[in-house]
Amino acid sequence: MKKWGDRYDAKRVRDIDGLHFYMAYLMPKRTDAEVYINEKLDITELLKYIEEKNASGIRKVTMFHCMIAAVARTIKMRPLLNRYISGKHYYDRNEISMGFTIKKKFTDHAEETLMIYKPKNEENLVAITDRLTPKVKEAKKESDNGQNVDDILNIVKKLPKPIMHIFMAVMRFMDNNGLMPKSFSSVDTNYCTVLLSNLGSIKCDAVYHHLNNFGTNGIVITIGEIHKEVMLDENNNPVIRDVVNIGATLDERIADGFYFARSLKLIKHLFKNPYLLDKTLGEEIDFEF
After folding, report:
1. Chain-centroid distance, C-alpha 247
2. HEC string for 111-171
3. Tens digits of per-residue pLDDT, 113-131?
4. What does the domain layout of the chain look like in residue ranges?
5. CA 255 to each of CA 14, 45, 52, 265: distance values in angstroms, whole numbers, following the listed order
6. How far is 201 from 282, CA to CA, in rounded Å?
7. Do 187 and 148 meet the contact criterion of CB atoms below 8 Å apart?
8. What is the pLDDT of residues 11-41, one digit of tens each?
9. Alpha-carbon torsion 115, 118, 124, 127, what sign?
């Protein structure tokens, strides 16, 4: 049941401990509380799994689809990752939301568009792939594809500079007080649980990506290019493995680096045991953090 102080997308956390209450005032800006973690993931078994999934030719599962499924599973099992701070109050989101930036063409001046995906409890990797693939294809079309946030921003860019300052002041006031229209926040990746950037698709490694003080997004994950590295196996023998680097930036006020580092262990476990991605998000899996 919705209570006073709740928002349309989240419930207000009313039993926050003293330390975290203090942190919201000590570090009022999200960028004041950034924690950055760089991690190397062994995806050798995952690539074999992807090859099996694609053998039928019915669909094309990618490593990015697997990352989306793994991150969604992790957030489901680590609920503090789905928390945000706004107006110095803590909120628990009602849904998991994942944002991406899609480049329409791999050229310097190609337009970008935004996409938001909300995983459902009954979805597994295959369902995620089948749902996202047509949406991405539609978003890449040069013609207008109905992305509301793009339409809004194209209008806003025409405002004179003094009016733009007033517009942004109003936007920040609405943002801090939970008054942002749903028509805007529901299509803006600044209001997602996690923002994912697949830099490997442009032959780039994972990098540090800052958070924004606008909106509610508190986690950004960048994914690098797949490459081979020499690693040590359980017997300390050198072996060549397929790996990918990821960089993750987190708002420490919602979950500290220790909590997030343990969450990354789950992503590693899922990639080493990719058949777990066949389970729906609503199904439980055994994992010791």
Report:
1. 12
2. CEEEEEECCCCCCCHHHHHHHHHHHHHHHCCCCCCCCHHHHHHHHHCCCCHHHHHHHHHHH
3. 778 999 999 999 999 999 9
4. 24-143+185-278
5. 17, 30, 36, 15
6. 30
7. yes
8. 999 999 999 999 999 999 999 999 999 999 9
9. negative
The closest of 67, 46, 50, 19 to 194, measured between CA atoms, is 67
Distance (Å, rounded) from C-alpha 251 to C-alpha 36? 9
What top-level class would CATH report for the domain 24-143+185-278?
Answer: alpha beta
pLDDT class for 183, splitting at 50, 70, 90?
A: confident
| pTM above threshold 0.85 | yes
Lowest mean pLDDT among 108-122, 219-233, 266-280: 108-122
CA atoms within 13 A on the CB side of 237: 2
Whether the pLDDT of residue 82 is over 90: the answer is: yes
Nearest in space to 124 (alpha carbons), one of 226, 43, 192, 53: 53
